[in-house]
Amino acid sequence: MAKQQTSATAGMLPRVTEPSERDESSDSSAGKHSIDSHESIETPIAARGRPTVLGVLAVVANVVLAVLYPLAVWWSLTHLSPRVVGLVALAIVVPLMALRFRNADRENLVAVLRVPLVVLAVLLLGVITDDARFVLFMPVLINGALLVTFASSLRTVPMIERFARMQDPRLTPDKQRHCRQVTWAWVFFFVLNATIAAALALFAPLAWWATYNGGIAYALMGSMFAGEYVLRKARFREYGRGPQDWLLAKVFPPRGGVS
To answer: Least C-beta-crowded within 10 Å: which of 4, 117, 142, 191?
Structure first.
């Protein structure tokens, strides 16, 4: 009887956990929480997926096409008719567009395809009319698309700020103002570049058009990037470990004397 009472009482009392059992239970719980957290972090990354071979090829093809287009057009128009050049351009641009937008959402597809469809329409007019000026207007359309993109971003988050936040999500108010000013600078650049490209397409010899759009325009863009980089370093005095930062730190010493 005493044994039954003792066992019943023991059953009603809370069980005392030994220290070793508590440690094992804690480790097991922590390990499970770590695994769950790891899975919650890894899932979105895995969901995004890695770039496909076709995606990489599309990016490379777009860059090569943008760089070589003026020189290719200059050579083609001096050896072939504008109609043939337009047909070749369409044969290149259409597959690239299909490859680029194959996974685009149908809801956003119309907005995304506005500029490419305008480009195709201009090339098609060049083929129909056999007029080289339609082919030569491609750089004007590209600058116009960039102009609209950068200018429209000033109503919300400036385009340069979006790029900057990829590296530094917590931008100070001064850096935000800097990004807005740089976005405005690019807007003016695209206006100027599109105007020059249009004037050359309409009134200048073909060699002038190819020289500007195939060389000078890219040099000006490089100067814009380099100038903004130097201005940013001189204004904020924040440097990395690259050789260019080491050199700029000598010209514009960091505030507080910390290198």
So the answer is: 4
